Amino acid sequence: MHITIGMDPNILSFGPFVIAWHALAILVAIVIAVQIVKWEFRRKGLSFAHWDAMVYWTVAGGIIGARVFYVIDHLGYHLHHPLEIFALNQGGLAIYGSVFGGFVTVLALCRYYHMPTLPVIDAIAPGLIMAQAFGRIGCIINGDAWGAPTASHFAFIYTNPKALLPPDLIGVPTYPYPLYDLVINVAIFAVVWRLRRRGLPDGALFAIFTALYGASRFLISFMRQERIWFWGLQEAQVVAILALAAALVALAFLFLRRAPRDVDLPASV
User: What's the predicted TM-score (pTM) here?
Assistant: First the structure.
């Protein structure tokens, strides 16, 4: 079954000002994420004293990180078109960059506002995953996260010349990569949402999300058509390996730290 996507990536345009479906999807994703994180803050008894600043700066850090990672991955092009580094209306936000940028921002904010870092990142995890899933709807419409050409019976075919995938892929069946990523994010959300009340060590929920997404992203990236970094791996796959390794180390540390230690009993007299 081939799914034809012929929608214009842009909803409205007024001269240089453009309202794109991807931008709308990201906006809705942010609203959903903020609401879920607010529920988790309330459930975990975390302070709302600096809530507005936390939301504003975390979203800003996520967007900046997403753009930086995308520009780095397409550095050759942007070196010749430097002004397009700021052309967010044309798409180009890397999910890994969003997670990294938001994560670093949250660490800095927790330190600045003296908030408990591990409970905070656990509270953020479910909202972050759902935001990633919803944001992929925008990617499906505008074609900025395309799969490689395929002879599979299940594929996307973009027909609108404004779609953001390479021009030579217009009208060509490609792997429905963003759809697979959307489904994976929803599945990970279901796992994390179920585990969040299981009494895990603080920080473990975020690490579990990172490990699951890193492993799945590594696998589905074989369906993409991206620049190879080394060892036949794409940027996203290299980052996935690093994220998975860091998450597994963090999980081991968190569970070992919480494990009860043997207590030396006095010898019987």
Answer: 0.84
